[in-house]
User: What shape does this take?
Amino acid sequence: MAKKEVRNKVRSTESELKEKLVSLNRVAKVTKGGRTFSFAAIVVVGDGNGTVGQGLGKAREVTDAISKAVDDARKNLIKFPLYKGTIPHEQLGKFGAGKVLIKPAADGTGVIAGGSMRAVLEIAGVHNVLAKSQGSSNPHNVVKATIDALTKLRNPMEVARQRRINMDKVFNG
Assistant: This one.
Protein backbone atom coordinates (compact mmCIF):
# COMPACT_ATOMS: atom_id res chain seq x y z
CA MET A 1 0.00 0.00 0.00
CA ALA A 2 2.84 2.38 0.81
CA LYS A 3 4.25 2.09 -2.72
CA LYS A 4 0.96 3.18 -4.28
CA GLU A 5 0.81 6.24 -2.02
CA VAL A 6 4.34 7.24 -3.03
CA ARG A 7 3.51 6.79 -6.74
CA ASN A 8 0.41 8.97 -6.38
CA LYS A 9 2.46 11.73 -4.73
CA VAL A 10 5.03 11.61 -7.54
CA ARG A 11 2.29 11.82 -10.17
CA SER A 12 0.60 14.75 -8.42
CA THR A 13 3.83 16.79 -8.48
CA GLU A 14 4.46 15.84 -12.14
CA SER A 15 0.89 16.75 -13.10
CA GLU A 16 1.70 20.40 -12.27
CA LEU A 17 3.85 20.41 -15.41
CA LYS A 18 2.24 22.01 -18.45
CA GLU A 19 2.91 20.61 -21.89
CA LYS A 20 2.99 22.23 -25.30
CA LEU A 21 3.28 20.60 -28.72
CA VAL A 22 6.04 22.33 -30.71
CA SER A 23 6.05 20.27 -33.89
CA LEU A 24 4.20 17.30 -35.36
CA ASN A 25 5.68 15.72 -38.47
CA ARG A 26 4.30 12.93 -40.65
CA VAL A 27 7.10 10.72 -41.90
CA ALA A 28 6.91 7.95 -44.50
CA LYS A 29 8.88 4.75 -44.80
CA VAL A 30 8.78 3.27 -48.29
CA THR A 31 8.46 -0.50 -48.28
CA LYS A 32 7.78 -3.15 -50.94
CA GLY A 33 4.07 -2.92 -50.15
CA GLY A 34 3.92 0.86 -50.39
CA ARG A 35 4.40 3.74 -47.95
CA THR A 36 4.06 3.29 -44.20
CA PHE A 37 3.20 6.53 -42.42
CA SER A 38 4.11 7.39 -38.85
CA PHE A 39 4.32 10.57 -36.76
CA ALA A 40 7.17 12.34 -34.94
CA ALA A 41 6.20 14.83 -32.21
CA ILE A 42 8.34 17.37 -30.35
CA VAL A 43 6.86 18.42 -27.00
CA VAL A 44 8.04 20.88 -24.36
CA VAL A 45 6.98 20.56 -20.70
CA GLY A 46 7.54 23.03 -17.86
CA ASP A 47 6.20 24.25 -14.54
CA GLY A 48 6.21 27.95 -15.44
CA ASN A 49 8.77 28.65 -12.72
CA GLY A 50 12.21 27.97 -14.21
CA THR A 51 11.91 24.27 -15.07
CA VAL A 52 11.66 23.02 -18.65
CA GLY A 53 12.28 19.86 -20.65
CA GLN A 54 11.91 18.70 -24.25
CA GLY A 55 11.08 15.31 -25.68
CA LEU A 56 10.69 13.50 -28.98
CA GLY A 57 8.16 10.73 -29.57
CA LYS A 58 7.56 8.60 -32.65
CA ALA A 59 4.60 6.31 -33.27
CA ARG A 60 2.04 5.22 -35.87
CA GLU A 61 -0.72 7.26 -34.16
CA VAL A 62 -0.59 10.98 -33.34
CA THR A 63 -1.75 10.56 -29.73
CA ASP A 64 0.80 7.82 -29.05
CA ALA A 65 3.61 9.96 -30.49
CA ILE A 66 2.59 12.93 -28.32
CA SER A 67 2.33 10.85 -25.14
CA LYS A 68 5.76 9.29 -25.81
CA ALA A 69 7.20 12.78 -26.35
CA VAL A 70 5.68 14.01 -23.05
CA ASP A 71 7.20 11.03 -21.19
CA ASP A 72 10.59 11.75 -22.78
CA ALA A 73 10.35 15.45 -21.91
CA ARG A 74 9.63 14.68 -18.25
CA LYS A 75 12.84 12.63 -18.14
CA ASN A 76 14.89 15.56 -19.53
CA LEU A 77 13.91 18.41 -17.18
CA ILE A 78 16.40 21.19 -16.43
CA LYS A 79 16.22 24.01 -13.88
CA PHE A 80 17.47 27.53 -14.63
CA PRO A 81 17.46 30.85 -12.71
CA LEU A 82 14.65 33.35 -13.27
CA TYR A 83 15.04 36.94 -12.08
CA LYS A 84 11.87 39.09 -11.82
CA GLY A 85 10.12 37.23 -14.65
CA THR A 86 13.07 37.42 -17.02
CA ILE A 87 16.49 35.83 -17.41
CA PRO A 88 19.45 37.21 -15.42
CA HIS A 89 21.77 37.91 -18.39
CA GLU A 90 22.25 37.64 -22.16
CA GLN A 91 23.15 34.16 -23.38
CA LEU A 92 23.96 32.33 -26.62
CA GLY A 93 22.86 28.74 -27.14
CA LYS A 94 23.85 26.34 -29.86
CA PHE A 95 22.85 22.88 -30.99
CA GLY A 96 23.83 21.59 -34.40
CA ALA A 97 23.15 24.37 -36.91
CA GLY A 98 20.61 26.01 -34.60
CA LYS A 99 21.91 29.16 -32.90
CA VAL A 100 19.86 31.14 -30.41
CA LEU A 101 20.38 34.48 -28.64
CA ILE A 102 18.27 35.35 -25.58
CA LYS A 103 18.39 38.71 -23.78
CA PRO A 104 16.67 39.91 -20.62
CA ALA A 105 13.93 42.50 -21.15
CA ALA A 106 12.18 45.14 -19.04
CA ASP A 107 8.92 44.35 -17.29
CA GLY A 108 5.95 44.52 -19.69
CA THR A 109 7.95 43.64 -22.82
CA GLY A 110 6.56 40.12 -23.18
CA VAL A 111 8.10 37.18 -24.98
CA ILE A 112 9.58 38.49 -28.22
CA ALA A 113 10.55 35.20 -29.86
CA GLY A 114 9.54 33.13 -32.84
CA GLY A 115 8.00 29.70 -33.22
CA SER A 116 9.79 26.97 -31.33
CA MET A 117 11.69 29.38 -29.06
CA ARG A 118 8.45 31.04 -27.94
CA ALA A 119 6.99 27.68 -26.90
CA VAL A 120 10.06 26.81 -24.78
CA LEU A 121 10.31 30.23 -23.11
CA GLU A 122 6.58 30.53 -22.34
CA ILE A 123 6.29 27.04 -20.86
CA ALA A 124 9.45 27.68 -18.79
CA GLY A 125 7.87 30.74 -17.15
CA VAL A 126 9.90 33.53 -18.76
CA HIS A 127 7.54 36.51 -19.14
CA ASN A 128 9.87 39.20 -20.52
CA VAL A 129 12.63 38.27 -22.96
CA LEU A 130 14.07 39.25 -26.33
CA ALA A 131 15.11 36.25 -28.41
CA LYS A 132 16.54 35.68 -31.86
CA SER A 133 17.04 32.46 -33.77
CA GLN A 134 20.15 32.93 -35.90
CA GLY A 135 20.87 29.58 -37.49
CA SER A 136 18.73 26.71 -38.66
CA SER A 137 14.94 27.00 -38.35
CA ASN A 138 14.62 23.25 -37.78
CA PRO A 139 12.39 22.89 -34.67
CA HIS A 140 14.58 20.09 -33.23
CA ASN A 141 17.72 22.23 -33.30
CA VAL A 142 16.02 25.47 -32.21
CA VAL A 143 14.38 23.84 -29.17
CA LYS A 144 17.62 22.14 -28.12
CA ALA A 145 19.64 25.34 -28.67
CA THR A 146 17.15 27.31 -26.54
CA ILE A 147 17.41 24.75 -23.74
CA ASP A 148 21.22 24.89 -24.09
CA ALA A 149 21.10 28.68 -23.62
CA LEU A 150 18.83 28.33 -20.57
CA THR A 151 21.17 25.68 -19.11
CA LYS A 152 24.15 28.07 -19.39
CA LEU A 153 22.39 30.83 -17.38
CA ARG A 154 23.97 31.65 -14.03
CA ASN A 155 22.23 32.75 -10.85
CA PRO A 156 23.05 36.42 -9.92
CA MET A 157 23.69 35.45 -6.28
CA GLU A 158 26.14 32.76 -7.39
CA VAL A 159 27.98 35.28 -9.61
CA ALA A 160 28.16 37.80 -6.72
CA ARG A 161 29.54 35.13 -4.38
CA GLN A 162 32.17 34.00 -6.92
CA ARG A 163 33.31 37.58 -7.56
CA ARG A 164 33.06 38.46 -3.83
CA ILE A 165 30.90 41.56 -4.49
CA ASN A 166 27.39 42.80 -3.59
CA MET A 167 24.30 41.88 -5.62
CA ASP A 168 23.89 45.59 -6.55
CA LYS A 169 27.32 45.63 -8.23
CA VAL A 170 26.43 42.55 -10.33
CA PHE A 171 23.57 44.43 -12.03
CA ASN A 172 24.87 48.02 -11.89
CA GLY A 173 28.48 47.28 -12.79
In short: The CA atoms of residues 42 and 140 lie 7 Å apart. The radius of gyration is 19 Å. The first strand starts at residue 18 and ends at 31. Residues 62-75 form the longest helix (14 residues).
